[in-house]
Amino acid sequence: MLLSEVPAGGAQFFYLVPWMVFLPLIGLLINIIVGGRLSEKWIGGIASAATGLAFVVAVFLAISLVGHPEGTTVPLIDWITIGELRVRWGFQVDTLSVTMMLMVSFVGTLIHIYAIGYMHDDVRHNGDPARYRRFFVFFNLFVLAMMVLVSADNYLMLFVGWEGVGLCSYLLIGFWYEKGEKGIGNALAAKKAFITNRIGDFGFLLAAFTMFGIFRTFDFEEVFKQVPQVAELFPIAILMITLFMLLGVTGKSAQLPLYVWLPDAMAGPTPVSALIHAATMVTAGVYLVARSFPLYAIVPAAQNTVAIVGGATALFAATIGLAQFDIKKVLAYSTISQLGFMVAAVGMGAIVAGIFHLVAHAFFKALLFLSAGSVIQGVERGEHHIEHDPKLKKASKAHAHFDPQDMRNMGGLRTRMKTTFWVYIIGALALSGIPPLAGFWSKDEILLEASHLNPLVYYLLVAAAFFTAFYMGRQVLMVFFGEPRSEAAAHATESPLVMTVPLMILAFFSAFGGLMNLPWLHTLGHWLEHTIKIEEAVKEVKLGAEAAVKFDWVVASISTALALIAIGLAWWLYERRYKELLKLPQAKRPDDPLRGILGPVFRLLEHKYWVDELYWAVILNPYIALSRFLAEQVDWRFWHDWFHDQVILRGYNALARLLSVQIDLGVIDAIANWIGEVTQRLANRMRLIQSGYVRNYALSVFLGVVIILGYLILR
Amino acid sequence: MSVPLAYYIGLSAILFTIGAMGVLIRRNSIVIFMSVELMLNAANLAFVAFARSYEAISGQIFVFFVMTVAAVEVAVGLALIVAIFHTKQSIDVDQMNSLRG
């Protein structure tokens, strides 16, 4: 099934869809098998080509969908057949899944290409160039798992992808597993991500079990077909499924209360943060809710819960983002916040707005992360430069512990990293929602829907949007403007073209991605309608509302005005105030102008509301104490020392003694000995008969004959 | 005038009883041997008498077999007695009780 064999006249390429999964598989297999003998350029090239070809296939699928917008399912193999349970590995090709495939493969390809350059430096900076190949194998594996996730035509296959991306996330967060705080920081971060995700997966599994219990199937189509009648019989079951599923979403898409893993996940290399923890994997939860929309549409309680979780997360994470100093942590909280926007949107039923924001966010957040990676490496190069310049080294001896990700060590990079600066500005403005960049249109659509559907969520999201603009303004000003605040920043240099070209492409899409779904055209809306309109219930409940929503100048101008005010505020604080503060002696001046204004609130935000500490105190420490108690007291002292060594050992010994002494010696041996004795005694009696006298024998023969004859005669 | 069958059988029974008593009572192995011969010949007499009475030849043929076996037995038995006498200087059966239990 090569591309050249495609019939020229046919506009249907749906059968190509398995290649979405197989191409990354081929890429990673090549790299596993022969990658050891290839140069870095080839390894990265093969991985990028595999993802790029997947993007080509996705384009073919999209072209096919133009002619057949209803889509199809492409069965590949039967996976599980146990009685009633039949699960096949099939591919769902419809406008929703293909939108995800396009986004994942496109952004994925760009990030792969970027990673060719980034990882080249990263493996050398961390001192193990052999891991270059491993990185791209994991990266292709991730694309593979993500494709399984978005192309699944049933919940179980989706779960396979869901777990697969979780695994890759774990592997890549812990990519430098021996680095980080005390040499285990990265490993702990990876573990935290994995375990937190497992809590969410537990919810997903419960949802899947309940679903099979009620619907007797996992197939999307079958399940959605049965929704109306099941909703009449067991409405509570659907509520349970949707809420369990929400738990899964909070895990994978980093929503309250399970968001805590995502900031720590920044321990992974920056392309990982961009691809997995910003653009693709974390949106899986949004995709799941969008995909399961027929279920959610039936139960408004679940919808409200999802929307409020999303809205609350958006605001909560945005406020934390205000007071972070690590360039990637700011973006991480921003990602959580933006995921909150998406989850709120799909929760309210504004599927199109949610998916629109998902795609737009993938562009500008991937752009921001990759640019942040470029900045970090620029600063690292500056630091490297100082290390090798004895004069400079002497001057900068003061800060031996230098963190190239700390924004307090940056500043003034505007002139030193020009390309990175400009694409960063585009990404930051898009994220802040400044028209006419992509983020404005997508965020505005969510706000618009929220203003109609759920006022509470609307207020949460507007506040979050304000803070978003503020922390992005703060970040841009701290990183790129002002004077360099460290020697490393002063000597930072621009990244190579292999990194900046993907940045420019992403910047282009961040700027013009809004064209996908302009409020007057609703291109994406009409495209997705083909998938979403199939379910009648959905159409009645939500699409009606959505169709009525027109571009609202009031909503748009409020959000734009707030964003501009926030950026202005950031400008005033971080350009004007910061300069004044820098004149103070180092010991006296606060590291952030906001600290002086907000005081303890800033400390609260800087420490992330002490949520991690709270989880430690409320969940982890008791849990660890319980585990320790179970391990040391119950398992070791009770089971091992007492139960095994005392009860079982002694019991066994007693039983063995009973068996050997009482039963074996007392009964079995006694019986055997008794038989022997009896035989001996009997033999002693019997030997008397053997007199040795022939006469006696003859007499007994004689008597025997007499007896026999007597018997015969007298009978 | 022929002798009735009962007389032959009676004689045969008397001879057999004498022979059996001889085996049980006597201690000299030669005599025991002779008593055994007596019992065999008592049986032979009964065979012949019945053969004659029922005019069946098979009884007479049986007698030949018995006489043959008796001759063989005598040959073996006398050889045994000679061998025993060699070792024990006696042919008293009561002396030969080494198989006593």
Write the layout of secondary structure elements.
The complex is a heterodimer of chains A (715) and B (101).
Chain A: H1 19-33, H2 40-67, E1 72-82, E2 85-93, H3 95-125, H4 131-151, H5 155-173, H6 185-215, H7 220-233, H8 235-252, H9 261-264, H10 270-279, H11 284-291, H12 293-298, H13 300-321, H14 327-348, H15 351-387, H16 390-395, H17 413-416, H18 418-432, H19 438-453, H20 455-480, H21 487-490, H22 497-512, H23 523-532, H24 536-548, H25 553-583, H26 593-598, H27 600-606, H28 611-687, H29 694-714
Antiparallel strand pairs in A: 1-2
Helix pairs in contact in A: 1-2, 1-4, 2-3, 2-4, 3-4, 3-10, 3-15, 3-22, 4-5, 5-6, 5-10, 6-8, 7-8, 8-11, 8-13, 10-15, 11-14, 13-14, 13-20, 14-15, 14-19, 14-20, 15-18, 15-19, 15-22, 15-23, 18-20, 18-22, 19-20, 19-25, 20-25
Chain B: H1 5-25, H2 29-54, H3 57-88
Helix pairs in contact in B: 1-2, 2-3
Task: Describe what you observe in this structure.
The complex is a heterodimer of chains A (715) and B (101). Chain A has 715 residues and is mainly alpha-helical. Chain A has helices at residues 19-33, 40-67, 95-125, 131-151, 155-173, 185-215, 220-233, 235-252, 261-264, 270-279, 284-291, 293-298, 300-321, 327-348, 351-387, 390-395, 413-416, 418-432, 438-453, 455-480, 487-490, 497-512, 523-532, 536-548, 553-583, 593-598, 600-606, 611-687, 694-714, and strands at 72-82, 85-93. In chain A, 75% of the residues lie in helices and 3% in strands. Chain B is elongated, with a radius of gyration of 17 Å. With 101 residues, chain B is mainly alpha-helical. The relative contact order of chain B is 0.13. The chains are: A mainly alpha (715), B mainly alpha (101). Chain A binds chain B through residues 686-695, 698-699, 702, and chain B through 20, 23-25, 27, 32, 93-94, 96-101.
